[in-house]
Amino acid sequence: MVCSGSTVTEINRGSAGLAGPLANLSALTGLQALWLHANKLLTGDIVILKGLTNLKVLYLGYTGLRGFLGDLSTLTQLEELNVDVVPLGTPMPDLANFKKLRILSIWQSGVVGLIPASLSSLTNLERLNLGYNGSLTGNIPNLSALTKLSYLDLSSNKLTGNIPDMSSLIRLGHAYYSTEDYTLTVPALEVPLLSFLGDALGESLYYETELKQVNGTNDRFVLQKITELVKVETDATCAKFDLDQGLATIPMVDVKLPIPGPIGDKNFGFNTEQYAVTLKWMPILGAEVFVIESINKIVK
Predict the structure, then answer these.
(1) Between the chain's N and C termini, which has fewer beta carbons within 10 Å?
(2) Any idea what the CATH number is for the domain that residue 124 is in?
(3) Are residues 60 and 164 in the same domain?
(4) CA of residue 115 relative to chain centroid, distance
(5) Mean pLDDT score of the chain
(6) 294 in Cβ contact with 281 (< 8 Å)
(7) 50 near 26, Cβ under 8 Å?
(8) Whole-structure pTM over 0.85, yes or no?
(9) Which residues of the chain have pLDDT under 70?
């Protein structure tokens, strides 16, 4: 618990073994952050939280809470909302009041019906996860205004229609390391163009690359796939390749790691950590091999 003077501003009771109905916290009007995740026996209706209008961070994932997310529309200051694996079973609410959201994660929570068009107005969103809601239907809304997105998951739903134009989502360029198949995917790697004499021309080509970790090693990857990109818009998270030094600098790699539970080794979801990585190109016996030169965890 964190206080500012006599005002409670943060409560973190994640993975605390809480059970029974959620307590009424309406008197804590100064509360800005509430973590109650990974308490599977915590029950009650989320409507009880609607009076906490100063909340900026709310994590309710992996609990037994229920209710309609629309009842939280009074929480207009929210920047992070996580209700992963919560048995909601209700329609997606209108999201127009959540203008400040940076993180919205409603993964495998049984929300049904259409994705509201108001999702398109959440221009501060950096991470959006609506995956594994099998009864989520209809078309994907226009996401072109969400230019801050760095992570998007709409998988395992019943969405239909054409995938909307996402060419303006320049931040969908974070590299991603999969702990399941040990691959490092770099959505956009910038390679400068050189003249015949080796002089820089001031232009670049861009490639989507996939690197496979060499079995039995912790720092060696083989180039498995490379695809030239026709149209690319980049930002500071775009990876760059230095031809002179043979170095691939990747400013941001997302690594999805399991959150350990309080009982045994059971997992209670996943947390994403981010790293800055530099790879050294070292062709060995004809293989396109990259070796990790440096790796540094990014602390927010």
Answers:
(1) C
(2) 3.80.10.10
(3) yes
(4) 18
(5) 85
(6) no
(7) no
(8) no
(9) 163-173, 194-201, 230-236, 258-271, 285-286, 300
